[in-house]
Amino acid sequence: MAMSELTERGKALLEGVTEGVWTVDAAWGGHYGVRGGKYQLQVVYAHSDWEGFGNGSRLADAEFIAASRQLVPELIAEVERLEGLLDWANTALRASLDSQAAGWTEVKRLRDALQVEESGQ
Question: For residue 98, is it within any domain?
Fold first, then answer.
């Protein structure tokens, strides 16, 4: 899968999600939620009987979900930056190879001319 496909998928997933920093919310009964947005309203809440059981409202899961709101856009930006550098390097390499090819063509032309001159033709 091309990097641009991954970044487009990431951007599509970000559309419409609550803006701003998300934080972990230790809810009652040992459950965890994630708060975000201007008023820090609960964005995600998962219920389970105990941490690590049920449908997975473990602290590590809540921290991952909260961090992903900032991490995903940062990763997308870094991929796009690196794609730009790769495009630039690819263009520079192609120009260098074209220049080398032209140089070798000139070397061959000069060698052929020398051979003609040496043979007296």
Answer: no
47-72 residue pLDDT tens: 655 555 555 557 777 888 889 999 99
Q: How many angstroms separate the CA atoms of 81 and 61, rounded?
A: 29
Kindly tell me the sign of the dihedral angle through the C-alpha atoms of 19, 25, 28, 29: positive
Range(s) of the domain holding residue 67:
3-85
Q: What is the DSSP string of 17-74?
A: PPPS--EEEE-GGG-EEEEETTTTEEEEEE--SSTTSTTT--HHHHHHHHHHHHHHHH
CA nearest neighbour of 22 among 81, 71, 86: 71
Residue pointed to by tokens 């998928």: 9
Flag whether 117 is in a domain. no
Which residue, chain included where needed, has tokens 């995903």?
A: 72
**In whole angstroms, how far apart are CA 79 and each of 10, 50, 58, 105?**
11, 38, 30, 38
pTM of the model: 0.64
Distance CA 10, CA 8 (A): 5
Taking only the tens place, the pLDDT of each residue in 10-23 is: 999 999 888 888 88
